[in-house]
Structure formats: structure tokens, C-alpha cells
């Protein structure tokens, strides 16, 4: 009888420790997750339901990545273009129009990828 009680309490203790460990691991991963990434200077084209970045050919603007949560620890951003040759983004986030046209800019950080339509207009 005494052995059954000890065995029952041991199982309860193991399950409680396991549940606590799982809860802590979930909290850790939730607090480190990047929820969204956006560019402050982008605009919403409501007709097309898409975010856009616009610049004139030969001109540059500074773009600002915004992370959610704001205290996200890894603020490294990678930029890539679908076609290329229309615009470029430097390591210090300078967005420059190279040729008149439209392209898609993909911004990546951690587990998030965000797409923007890039429009370069004539000078």
C-alpha cells in the first residue's frame, strides 16, 4: 500500500516537472519570435492591396526596417529583388532607383519574409 502511494506521488511529480519544463520552453520561444517586419517608408496601394516603395531613377531614400516586437534582438535584414536591375538597397538601408520599372523586393529577417512592390519612376 505504501509503495503504491509513493509510486503515485512520483508519477505526479514527474508530470508536474514535465509540464513546467514545456511551459517554460514555450514562453522562451514565444518571446524570441519575430512576429512582423515592415518598412516605415512604404505606402499602401489600396486599389492593388499591396505595399509599395517608390523612388525616382537616380535618387536614394533611407528606409527603416520596423520589427515587431520592437525589442527583437536580431535586427539583421537581407534584401533581394525578384528581377534585379530596377533598384538596389545598400547595407546601410539606402534604397536607390537604378532604372524605370517595377520589381518585387523581398525583405528577410529570421523567420519572416515580407514582399514590397518597388516602383522606380522617371527622374
TrEMBL record:
Q: Record's InterPro entries? A: Big_2, Invasin/intimin_cell_adhesion
Q: Name one Pfam family in it.
A: Big_2
Q: Name the domain of life this protein comes from.
A: Bacteria
BIG2 domain span: 51-102
Q: What is this protein called?
A: BIG2 domain-containing protein
Provenance organism: Sphingobacterium griseoflavum
Amino acid at each position: 500500500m505504501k509503495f503504491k502511494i509513493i509510486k503515485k506521488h512520483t508519477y505526479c511529480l514527474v508530470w508536474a516537472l514535465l509540464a513546467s519544463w514545456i511551459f517554460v520552453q514555450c514562453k522562451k520561444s514565444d518571446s524570441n519570435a519575430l512576429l512582423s517586419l515592415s518598412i516605415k517608408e512604404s505606402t499602401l496601394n489600396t486599389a492593388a492591396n499591396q505595399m509599395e516603395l517608390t523612388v525616382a531613377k537616380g535618387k536614394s531614400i533611407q528606409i527603416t526596417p520596423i520589427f515587431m516586437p520592437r525589442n527583437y534582438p536580431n535586427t539583421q535584414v537581407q534584401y533581394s529583388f525578384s528581377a534585379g536591375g530596377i533598384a538596389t538597397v545598400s547595407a546601410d538601408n539606402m534604397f536607390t532607383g537604378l532604372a524605370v520599372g517595377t520589381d518585387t523586393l523581398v525583405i528577410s529577417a529570421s523567420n519572416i519574409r515580407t514582399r514590397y512592390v518597388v516602383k522606380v519612376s522617371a527622374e
